Amino acid sequence: xxxxxxxxxxxxxxxxxxxxxxxxxxxxxxxxxxxxxxxxxxxxxxxxxxxxxxxxxxxxxxxxxxxxxxxxxxxxxxxxxxxxxxxxxxxxxxxxxxxxxxxxxxxxxxxxxxxxxxxxxxxxxxxxxxxxxxxxxxxxxxxxxxxxxxxxxxxxxxxxxxxxxxxxxxxxxxxxxxxxxxxxxxxxxxxxxxxxxxxxxxxxxxxxxxxxxxxxxxxxxxxxxxxxxxxxxxxxxxxxxxxxxxxxxxxxxxxxxxxxxxxxxxxxxxxxxxxxxxxxxxxxxxxxxxxxxxxxxxxxxxxxxxxxxxxxxxxxxxxxxxxxxxxxxxxxxxxxxxxxxxxxxxxxxxxxxxxxxxxxxxxxxxxxxxxxxxxxxxxxxxxxxxxxxxxxxxxxxxxxxxxxxxxxxxxxxxxxxxxxxxxxxxxxxxxxxxxxxxxxxxxxxxxxxxxxxxxxxxxxxxxxxxxxxxxxxxxxxxxxxxxxxxxxxxxxxxx
Amino acid sequence: xxxxxxxxxxxxxxxxxxxxxxxxxxxxxxxxxxxxxxxxxxxxxxxxxxxxxxxxxxxxxxxxxxxxxxxxxxxxxxxxxxxxxxxxxxxxxxxxxxxxxxxxxxxxxxxxxxxxxxxxxxxxxxxxxxxxxxxxxxxxxxxxxxxxxxxxxxxxxxxxxxxxxxxxxxxxxx
Lengths: 495, 174
Description:
The structure holds 2 protein chains of 2 kinds.
Chain A: E1 9-12, H1 16-28, E2 32-38, H2 45-49, E3 52-56, H3 61-65, H4 68-77, E4 82-84, H5 94-102, E5 106-107, H6 112-119, H7 121-130, E6 138-140, H8 148-155, E7 159-163, E8 173-175, H9 181-196, E9 201-205, E10 211-219, E11 225-237, E12 240-246, H10 253-269, E13 274-282, E14 288-294, H11 301-308, H12 312-320, E15 337-344, E16 346-347, E17 353-354, E18 357-358, E19 361-363, E20 370-374, E21 381-382, E22 389-397, H13 400-413, E23 415-417, H14 423-431, H15 433-436, H16 444-447, H17 449-452, H18 459-471, H19 474-481
Helix pairs in contact in A: 5-6, 6-7, 13-14
Chain B: E1 3-7, E2 10-16, E3 25-27, E4 30-32, E5 34-38, E6 44-49, E7 52-61, E8 64-69, E9 72-79, H1 81-89, E10 97-99, E11 104-109, E12 116-117, E13 122-128, E14 131-136, E15 141-146, E16 153-154, E17 159-164, H2 166-173
Antiparallel strand pairs in B: 1-2, 1-9, 2-3, 3-4, 5-6, 6-7, 7-8, 8-9, 10-17, 11-13, 11-16, 12-15, 13-14, 15-17
């Protein structure tokens, strides 16, 4: 039986690890789960985990997941009481949220008005500035398209060109000088149109050596707004987060409190409801600026769950059902430290080029404090059709030192064969002196490129690996097998 | 017949050794006593080599061997003698061919055959894994041939654009 009155069945409008993550909580709450599934994901763990699979189709798998009309129609057909959009795809699409509401279905997220206000980068910056919170200098194309290039240049270099409707680094271009501006604008616009069906862009000053710090917000429909602490997400490549952690390292409690309180203030001013994240740029001098608000569950939400013990998906469902938050700010306890690493199909030695290939062997790590949120299964083919993130490794420790040690061990024990991944690279990131010391900023990865490169094998290591390959090559073994080697190695591995 | 196993772009000679008690295989001329035993878990193996025991995970597909050892994955290709001979015979040309760095689709083609381009000029925009990348001219050149059009999909290593140097083009023209 459902433990959330009014919500008997939820349609998950997503795929991969987050679809599985949402399904897991729904099951625990006794709520029936359904998911829209493209043929490419028919065998995925998420498709196996839900009670009901609703096939969707489209020119590409991504297009299928962006087909708002179809997804709302499916929700009606199957009698879903609510839709969980996950992150990405339609999660921050106001017309979709509106269509869901209009169909008499609960959208597990903020209201469409709040998405329109805070999910849109330009509108939210205007709103936040008006509410009196600090922002980095910026220029929006919309204000006057004819003078945009000039106004963008006036923001000062280096600057970022971003998609107004964007997120996740998509459609973002860094520009070092005026000469690069026109090309960067064209690229950003084209990416914005392709990923968000919205080609509006804006320019924003790029703070040098900044940290990316964000605050988890939880708000109900009755005016209660809480924060569940901050996360540092400074370890990024291509403007996409790679490692996230809480608490933010090397941050004094006064600054921590000010950032969290400001996030609550912004969410309250916006009349925000459900889970959301207020992102800030933290400059080396301790000044921080509102960056944007993500009006959805974040990829990195598990680190917050690990230290607070709060199931954010459960809270989302309860808030969507109209329940008041039972939690109180003072009752939220932050225990220990948590780190998340995004395991991606990519080659860090080749500028993080996406990798493809069959998943011949998948062996998730285990151990105390280790959580593995994966949407992949052995035998599956990794293709270019979706995002390269395969899974998330999340660890918890009594303190940051223990969390780092546990994460490094778990990364070394994560076996994914057949498709190149960044697992070993992530292990080197976590072992880097700067990371260990909490000296993190968004330029960490390019700055430490040489230190983080895959080390060259010693001759002994090389020979070990070659011997393993040769002795697992059928043809080779047949020839070696003709050679008797009595008693040389019987049982040696059992001791 | 000798075997070659390619690791990190380098081919290494690995041979079976027919000398009981003195080794099982030789790598780049050095003999090793080595045995590989299956472990309890899927893909798990224990390699005994030179008296050491190493726990590793192995998956094989065709001639490609994936070895997970000490937190790193190594990809080793078995190359038979025939393939080696074929590779050696291949001309080393094609330096002017811009090949796909990864599989993906063509978003936009910015040039056509006969165009002169400057170093850094965008030749085309491609997309892989939801990321757009501009393919730019590595030096001043003339576009000799464009192999793909907007919307086309390609695999890693597929030729996208062939460039001729300005002089070559002039010579061909006369």
